[in-house]
Amino acid sequence: MRRWPGWTGVLFAVAFYCLSFTPSLVPRTWALQAVAAGVTAAAGYGVGAFLGCAARRCGLRPGERLVRIGRLALAVLGTAGVVAVTARSVTWQGDMRRAVGMDPRIPWWQWLLVPFVALVLSALIVLLARALRLGTRALARLLERVIPRQVALAGAAALVTVVVVGIVQGFLLRGLLAVAESSASLANSSTTAGIVRPVLPTLSGSPSSLETWPSLGSKGRDFVGRASTKADIAAFTGRPAMDPIRVYVGLKSAPTLHERAELAVRELERTGAFRRKVLVVFGTTGSGWVNENLAKPLEYMYGGDSALVTVQYSYLPSWISFLTESEAADAGRSLFDAVYAHWSTLPAAQRPKLYVSGESLGSFASEKAFDGKLSEMVARSDGALLVGPTLQNPMWEQIGRDRDPGSQLWLPVYQDGRSVRFARRAPDLQSPPAPWPSPRIVYLQNGSDPVTWWSPDLLGSSPAWLDRPRAPDVSPDMQWYPLVTFWQVTCDLAGADGVPVGYGHRFGTLPVAAWAAVSQPPGWTAADTTRLERRLEAQQEPH
């Protein structure tokens, strides 16, 4: 614990620290950069310390004079490198901010804090690692009294590992989850300002509904409370309209996912949803949120002759739900299977077109409704719109892996675009210029979205999305480095929504053009798409 850091460890820590400042997917705040630099420097120290130990074990010990010269050179050059890279990073971050339409000016005083915060963080991590090693050795010495030394060392290491994992999972993780769940539960019981209980029988939570207003939860009340009205739709189209149907079943409405799915089907029957022109089954994010820019377009495109349905499976944020639950997959499968079972019994000429949609973790839930198989989605639906997929999306992963030769992972072409197409801008939907029969499936994804590209594989291998040519929204200066890039993209997750529309995890009104391509509403024109995009932008729905 008292030993000064080894010079090989410090050398690698400085190198990793400097590399952590290189451009990544989205601009970072100084605080995020400090975290990225501190964690990466600690990882670099670990690598350097290991290599130094290995070299000594192999008999490679430099002379005392060479060690003194090396330490002096490292102190001078390392300090100069840290100062130079920290200063240079202001320019890098300014360039990245300018590329996404943000103010490139960054307060210098904030970035001056980065090396100091990073030093403290990395030192704490190294001290924690040393404490664990010290504890392991102390335990091994006790075990040596009754068992051979090598066995004692292995046993001590195994025991300490089990204890640490147990503390993290059983104490720290459970405690954090309890706090997060308590906070999320309070948020779930709140109601957004301006949202009131609906009176229309076409909406869940109304007096006619099988769902009570409180049982919907916060995101459910937002979903039904923001439904388009026939007056708004008629004003936009210039023709008579219907009140759209929106069905939402909250987490507390029934104890199991199966019961919630069955309740959703009964609510669809009550509202007459199976007699509408289109019916969309949504997968939600972890908290139960559905993006209004995904929900509203079809309501306008079909004059309100539409129905939307979803169920809530959690009220925790997506990143927690994703790490601790498999319910997103179960929810997507339970709801779609229940809806499909009833829908498939109706005469083909009288039942609505059946679509699926979801954003982020919701896209994962939508894919799992079909066991992650494109053939199943094509066979059992009339199309899909999936936005901002995650690394766990099985269908998305398979399509990217088997994409047509010559296409890039950030905008892949699969089977010449026969069933599924990818877009980051509306014109991408017309590529490739080959026949595109129904059912049509569209993925919207940005090249700079860390939600899509984060993966543990970044620890040890360069990702295909960094191959050239790159997506226009990915910096040409971004490079892959072992360990470093993983922590960079991990920190980028925190800023994925903090960039303008069209970058990171922000898609704006692009779903309007995507829904027009997927559903091909009769009489709908490109001018209508532009008008609806402007209308949704003016409504300024919260993201």
Automatic annotation (TrEMBL):
Superkingdom, according to UniProt? Bacteria
Q: Which residues form the Alpha/beta-hydrolase catalytic domain?
A: 245-532
Q: Which Pfam families match?
A: Abhydrolase_9, Abhydrolase_9_N
Q: Where would one find the signal peptide in this protein?
A: none
- The membrane spanning regions, by residue number, are 30-54, 66-88, 108-130, 151-173
Q: Which UniProt keywords apply?
A: Hydrolase, Membrane, Transmembrane, Transmembrane helix
Q: Where is the Alpha/beta-hydrolase N-terminal domain?
A: 21-226
GO molecular function list: hydrolase activity
Recorded protein name is: Alpha/beta hydrolase
